[in-house]
Amino acid sequence: MGHSQLSDIGSVGSRGMSALRVRGPVLPDGETRDLYVVEGRVTYDRVSSAELVAEGWIVPGLVDAHCHVGLDADGAVPPDVQEQQALADRDAGALLLRDCGSPADTRWVQDRDDLPRLIRAGRHIARTRRYIRNYAHEIEPEDLPAYVAQEAGRGDGWVKIVGDWIEREAGDLAPSWTRASLDAAMRTAHERGARVTAHVFGEAALPDLIASGIDCIEHGTGLSADLVDDMVARGVALVPTVRQLDNFPQYAEAGRRRFPAYAEHMLALHRRRREVIGAAYEAGVAIYAGTDAGGVLPHGLIGEEVRELTTYGLSARDALGAASWRARSWLGLDGTLAEGTPADFVVFDEDPLLDLSVLGRPARIVLRGAVVG
Ligand SMILES: [Zn+2]
């Protein structure tokens, strides 16, 4: 956000936008404070005229680190549906979205102060005929670096590739790319200041993706102990989308008639999911919360994703941090509600660290300094 936009918000003050006050424990440290919002920013300097708008546990704006605005099961959706998707996320307290691939141009969302902050990855890049129809640029490995360069230019610092999918002749998941194409693609993205993430369900695609210098893995159900250690050493993040992993049996059954080996493979990945993702967490891989909303799942499930993460072994604090302060820092924003930071936060009536189900009931939502819920 530039300074001109901030002074625009400030000028609203003369038309009646007064300072706000919220009171309560401010997470992650939990110190009880009076937090004021002045001209869209957090301050702890007392403003006597401020209106008290909430009391409760104050959490830095939630983050959905893997969702898709502008996408549904059949492909791109029009702007009115994109708006509903973004509003559903916002009303669940998700005030920062990392979009993990969309065939629609959703840049307009960034011009709306009442919609969540949006970090886009451009359009998915997949191997020819090896992803969901209408979603991706479908290309061959030799074209991967050029497409990564293109999507790095269109997105907001992230590029999304599909690392594995059903390969029809093998009848099972198989890596989408060659090691050489991945090496060139990662170099291309990093030269342009973009990070790369990959959809990966199975085991076989992971070694080349991680060795080529990828920045993040989505899903990650095929990880092994060795690869997890590599991820820690290289600082590769993991967004497991644990709500989405519950759908693996459904995907297995949908493919069983034509691809029985794939169906068995998906069921095996599903059975091991808690063990595999839990081992990554134990080893110290940085895990972030993403719902994968927009393809199969609806938007607005960030609270459920956080709760589900605790069934994989994450503590309540680590699961909430994965969808709040830690995720915000990872994505380049202020992690905590320090003096002078943009006022994006959610207030809850109870301590979410004692009962994460309260995440489903935000008491107040403040985005860019304005009460939006
Ligand atoms: Zn996704």
Per DSSP E runs of 2 or more residues, the count of β-strands stands at: 21
What proportion strand? 15-25%
Order of strands, widest sheet: 3-2-1-4
The average pLDDT score comes to 95
Helix content: 25-40%
Quick synopsis:
It is built from 13 helices and 21 strands. The chain is an alpha/beta fold and 373 residues long.
Index terms:
373 residues; binds zinc ion; alpha/beta; disordered N terminus; 13 helices; 4-stranded antiparallel sheet
Structure description:
By secondary structure, this protein is an alpha/beta fold. Helix content is 32%, strand content 24%. It is built from 13 helices and 21 strands. It has helices at 3-11, 79-91, 144-154, 179-191, 206-211, 225-234, 242-245, 248-255, 260-271, 273-283, 302-310, 316-321, 325-330, and strands at residues 20-26, 31-38, 41-43, 51-55, 57-60, 62-67, 71-72, 75-76, 94-99, 117-119, 125-127, 137-139, 158-162, 164-167, 172-175, 195-200, 216-219, 237-239, 345-348, 364-367, 370-371. The strands form 7 sheets. It has a 4-stranded mixed β-sheet, with no helix packed on it. A 4-stranded antiparallel β-sheet has the order 5-19-20-21, with no helix packed on it. Strands 13-16-17-18 form a 4-stranded parallel β-sheet. A hairpin with a 4-residue loop joins strand 14 and strand 15. Helix 6 (225-234) runs parallel beside helix 10 (273-283). The longest helix is centred in the first third of the chain and has 13 residues, at 79-91. It is globular and about 70 Å long. The two termini are 22 Å apart. Residues 66, 68, 100, 292, 295 line the site of zinc ion (ZN).
